[in-house]
């Protein structure tokens, strides 16, 4: 690279063109607009070594909704979002495709021209400044946090409705119960459930109808909503904090400290913080889905709900909500697979020796009709490893 410093301007364009190697479905205009907004925010912090003219070009494109075609796949996070951000910059150079409300998808140069804008002209450092950072992870993460908040609030409402239908009790949501285990999310969810059920001031007719029943306590999926939903709310709050810091951070490399007259190569481009936080968010959202699926099973199971099977009269002739529960179960399993980062339809194979161990265990362990010690299983696995 140092042999070509005299051609630094050409290098900036080459960096963007060579790194624009993403594949897959293009991001929607809304997601691309978020991505561009966050990139502008990072560059405006003054640690990227980009000119004011270049920054103003990005702002003008944002205001006109001139949005580059950005494929959704190609980022691994460890080096930031190089490929997606390169595609974002490519359109601003007048190359590739862009979208705007006025033109739809069109040649980038024509889209810019239709809005009276000129392609971005790059100087030294500006190529890498445009493509180095975590803004794709962060923008999609911010959307995920917002959607998770909505889902979590809806889950609380659905849980309250289900409790009523299944003739559950709100006693487990008593405020003093929560105060002796004072997690923020648990307290808030219990308070929300009490408010929805009006259990203290305005108990419902359904609640009154079984006030003196002989049931000691409800199933976990009803009784433990404050604890399970509560930690999900706390998880979302935690992830929001990480994403908020990331949105407002300098994530370029190298980093320019103009006031010190120094340029430092460092690792702020690494996507570990938002990636790990979003993995945590995925686990939390799955917990809501898992609880919801189990409550649906109780609703359609007459042995548990005291309601008609699958919530329909004339069972057999009518299937009712049978397949609705099947769909819920399928989605819950798919979410579980997604938050473990494994293939849903066919788990990825491991190494040949481990696959052989797996097959030996599967062929050697007999199906059991009743509970038994697991020593035989352990012995087969141990001998296979030897």
From TrEMBL:
InterPro entries: Aromatic_Lyase, Fumarase/histidase_N, L-Aspartase-like, Phe/His_NH3-lyase_AS. It holds the Pfam family Lyase_aromatic. GO terms for molecular function: ammonia-lyase activity. Transmembrane segments: none annotated. Belongs to the PAL/histidase family. It comes from Timema bartmani. Gene3D superfamilies: Fumarase/aspartase (Central domain), Fumarase/aspartase (N-terminal domain). This is Histidine ammonia-lyase. PANTHER family: HISTIDINE AMMONIA-LYASE. It comes from the Eukaryota.
């Amino acid at each position: 690279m140092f042999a070509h410093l005299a051609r630094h301007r050409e290098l900036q364009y080459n960096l963007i063109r060579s790194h624009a190697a993403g594949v897959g479905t293009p991001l929607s205009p809304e997601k691309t607009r978020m991505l561009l907004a966050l990139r502008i925010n990072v560059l405006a912090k003054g640690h990227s070594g980009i000119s004011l003219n270049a920054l103003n070009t990005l702002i003008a494109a944002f205001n006109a909704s001139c949005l580059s075609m950005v494929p959704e796949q190609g980022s691994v996070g460890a080096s930031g979002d190089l490929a997606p951000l390169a595609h974002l910059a490519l359109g601003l150079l007048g190359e590739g495709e862009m979208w705007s409300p006025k033109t739809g998808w069109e040649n980038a140069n024509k889209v810019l021209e239709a809005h009276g804008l000129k392609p971005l002209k790059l100087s030294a450092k500006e190529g890498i400044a445009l493509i180095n950072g975590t803004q794709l992870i962060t923008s999609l993460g911010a959307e995920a946090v917002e959607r998770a908040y909505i889902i979590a609030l809806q889950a609380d409402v659905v849980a309250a409705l289900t409790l009523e239908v299944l003739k559950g009790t709100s006693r487990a949501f008593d405020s003093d119960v929560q105060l002796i285990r004072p997690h923020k999310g648990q307290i808030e969810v219990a308070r929300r459930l009490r408010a929805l059920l009006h259990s203290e001031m305005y108990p419902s007719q359904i609640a009154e109808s079984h006030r003196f029943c002989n049931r000691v306590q409800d199933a976990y999926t009803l009784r433990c909503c404050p604890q399970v939903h509560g930690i999900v709310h706390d998880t979302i709050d935690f992830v929001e904090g990480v994403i908020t810091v990331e949105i407002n951070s300098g994530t370029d490399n190298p980093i320019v400290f103009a006031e010190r007259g120094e340029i430092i190569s460092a690792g702020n481009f690494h996507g570990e913080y938002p990636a790990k936080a979003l993995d945590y968010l995925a686990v939390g959202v799955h917990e809501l889905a898992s609880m919801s699926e189990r409550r649906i099973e109780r609703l359609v199971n007459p042995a548990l709900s005291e309601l008609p099977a699958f919530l329909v009269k004339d069972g057999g002739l009518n299937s009712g909500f049978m397949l609705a529960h099947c769909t819920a179960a399928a989605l819950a399993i798919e979410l579980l697979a997604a938050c473990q980062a494994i293939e849903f339809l066919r788990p990825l194979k491991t190494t040949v020796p481990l696959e052989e161990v797996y097959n030996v265990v599967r062929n050697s362990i007999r199906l059991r009709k009743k509970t038994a010690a697991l020593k035989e299983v352990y012995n087969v696995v141990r001998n296979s490893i030897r």
